[in-house]
């Protein structure tokens, strides 16, 4: 029997985001973000036409939820402030008092319960008034975001000691400018690159503000790292393709956040294909000088890449796409989460952590998301109304074993957060896949019931590990 013991004070908990969990309440003063607006104009895009207003009602039920977090072994919890709730009109910058009250209560009650709040500032939720002005594509948004960040630090930074500037900055690029999962639903790689650049600059400016305020906490970013494996690691062309994919999707975000620079191979590629973003020379010093203190690693699945013969002209009608430079390798026999269609490759979490240890100065980090979305989970309900999600327990254990191995090899990993606490709303997939430790009955006032995995997590965290 092997024993997997984690350090004392390891951060155990879960992650959520404001837009996916809070919901919207009449009179709460929140303005539309891109999700509210997109649902109003194209409800058919959303699974079962369920939009962002139908969330797990954390806005109303946060006190009950905090008690449920205690019952499921949390000592920490990540969520995000919704920009469109706190500052309904970013052009005036006026703060919504209802939002301040809500976030104050949430933060205070979490702390009172012994659960450390980890607060993220941007989780895919561009205020619609800003999107109408170009969103992240418009440089003006960088300063508006920095103002918003500073207001958050001043309002809540006396109590919140772990801040994050953004969640998965590649996703607004992929979603909004490559693959059609987010507004503005364009296909334009050059715009995507510009957006990624503005996000990196905005993150650095928020880090600068935070450090200048001397509030005694840490600030970081949350990246979805997808270790990339070549189809055949003895074939130099596959290895080169995998290096490109890793550079575009991972290093383009890791490098500026941690090293304060952009990866030179990707910069060269941008130059070669006329994809360089517009920037000011002085930005580069801001990015260089304002690197993060703590990295959140979201890990769900790896990428696998094979070589592709690069054409002189883009393959599709929308100009160059990343896939013009590599072939997505669909590895036969890979283990799949059949519901979400994502590969399950537990060792990837270890590879991501070891990469940070070896190539990014072993910066302090933690697993900020990992999880398994399951469709029709209600079919696993037992007579007591509890979901028997043994598959989720197995999924977590299998990943934790690799986190443990990374720790043994010297990784500075400090915690593990599951996605998510309450089953919540998932962008275009709405409630198709359930991820939580706690089920939410949407037909019954969002009634909460702890799943088997929630009880297991409590036991596991009390022992700071498990045996198998
Ligand atoms: C991450 C996001 C989360 C969450 C999760 C699950 O990338 O940070 O917001 O949604 O993925 O993905 P999905 O909801 O698309 O199944």
TrEMBL record:
UniProt-annotated catalytic positions: 369
Keyword Hydrolase: yes
Pfam families in UniProt: Glyco_hydro_1
GO cellular component, one term: cytosol
Assigned keywords, A-Z: Glycosidase, Hydrolase
GO molecular-function term, one example from the UniProt record: beta-glucosidase activity
Keyword Hydrolase: yes
GO biological process terms on file: carbohydrate catabolic process
Signal peptide residues on this chain, from the entry's feature table: none
PANTHER family: 6-PHOSPHO-BETA-GLUCOSIDASE GMUD (PTHR10353:SF139), GLYCOSYL HYDROLASE (PTHR10353)
Record-stated family: Belongs to the glycosyl hydrolase 1 family.
Full protein name: Glycosyl hydrolase, family 1
């Amino acid at each position: 029997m092997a024993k997997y013991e984690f350090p004392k004070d390891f951060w155990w908990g879960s992650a959520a985001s404001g837009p996916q969990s809070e919901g919207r309440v009449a009179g709460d003063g929140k303005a539309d973000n891109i999700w509210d607006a997109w649902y109003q104009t194209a409800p058919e895009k959303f699974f079962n036409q369920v939009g962002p207003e139908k969330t797990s009602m954390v806005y109303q039920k946060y006190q009950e939820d905090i008690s449920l977090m205690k019952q499921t072994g949390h000592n920490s919890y990540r969520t995000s402030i919704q920009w469109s709730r706190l500052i309904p009109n970013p052009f005036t910058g006026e703060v919504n008092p209802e939002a301040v009250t809500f976030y104050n209560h949430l933060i205070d009650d979490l702390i009172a319960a012994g659960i450390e709040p980890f607060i993220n500032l941007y989780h895919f939720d561009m205020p619609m008034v800003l999107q109408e002005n170009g969103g992240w594509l418009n440089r003006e948004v960088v300063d508006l975001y920095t103002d918003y960040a500073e207001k958050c630090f001043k309002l809540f930074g006396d109590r919140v000691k772990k801040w994050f500037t953004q969640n998965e900055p590649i996703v607004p690029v992929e979603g909004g400018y490559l693959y059609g999962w987010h507004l503005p639903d364009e296909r334009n790689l050059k715009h995507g690159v510009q957006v990624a650049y503005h996000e990196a600059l905005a993150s650095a400016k928020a880090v600068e503000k935070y450090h200048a305020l001397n509030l005694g906490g840490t600030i970081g970013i949350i990246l979805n790292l997808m270790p990339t494996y070549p189809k055949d690691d003895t074939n130099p062309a596959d290895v080169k393709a995998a290096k490109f994919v890793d550079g575009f999707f991972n290093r383009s975000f890791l490098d500026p956040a941690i090293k304060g620079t952009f990866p030179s191979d990707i910069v060269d590629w941008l130059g070669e294909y006329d994809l360089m973003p517009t920037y000011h020379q002085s930005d580069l010093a801001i990015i260089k000088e304002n690197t993060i203190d703590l990295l959140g690693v979201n890990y769900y699945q790896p990428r696998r890449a094979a070589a592709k013969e690069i054409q002189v002209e883009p393959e599709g009608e929308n100009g160059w796409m990343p896939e013009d430079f590599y072939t997505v390798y669909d590895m036969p026999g890979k283990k799949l989460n059949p519901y979400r269609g994502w590969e399950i490759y537990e060792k990837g979490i270890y590879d991501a952590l070891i990469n940070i240890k070896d190539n990014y100065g072993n910066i302090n980090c933690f697993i900020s998301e990992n999880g398994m979305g399951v469709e029709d989970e209600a079919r696993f309900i037992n007579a007591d109304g509890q979901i028997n999600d043994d598959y989720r327990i197995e999924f977590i254990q299998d990943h934790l074993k690799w986190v443990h191995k990374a720790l043994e090899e010297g990784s500075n990993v400090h915690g593990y957060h599951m996605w998510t606490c309450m089953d919540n709303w998932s962008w275009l997939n709405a409630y198709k896949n359930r991820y939580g430790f706690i089920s939410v009955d949407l037909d019954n006032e969002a009634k909460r019931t702890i799943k088997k995995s929630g009880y297991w997590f409590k036991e596991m965290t009390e022992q700071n590990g498990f045996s198998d």
